[in-house]
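Below is how a single chain appears once it has passed through the pipeline. First comes the sequence as given, then the structure the pipeline wrote out for it. We keep one example in the README because the format questions we get most often are answered faster by looking than by reading.
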Amino acid sequence: MHSLKLFGHTHAICNAIITKSFCSHPLANLLGRLNHVAIATPDLKSASQFYKNLGAKVSDAVPQPEHGVYTVFVELPNSKLELLHPYGDSSPIQGFLDKNKAGGMHHICIEVDNIHKAMETCKDKGIRTLGDKPKIGAHGKDVIFLHPKDCCGVLIELEQA
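Resulting structure:
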């Protein structure tokens, strides 16, 4: 019986330590769920068909001229994939595909409860944003990208939840 009390006490202490250290972290409660993983593709039709053949629900291609891309969303049980294809002459995706002929992972998108607070926190931590203010993203919500050089080489999109 004494060992059970000790185990319970130890368990409570561990929970307190974990909770305290997580809650005191400057990014605690800032980052939400993974919204999507974006994949650049040189052939949007083939990429869409690939996921349809696997049984996924795949949207139609939607032009996003303000971002220089066509987007297709692949619905997954717990998230989405965003297929990206160049739109127009100044598409940032074309530059990516010039370096990665077969395409590949372009960015991840993480939801935030308050995009302006998230931008301020990132700035305070020395994480640069690509742009001074959010833009309207493919879901019609405010988004901002974080510089990959400040994010372990990963382009991160923050999206207002």
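Residues 1-30 form one domain.

See the next section for the split statistics.
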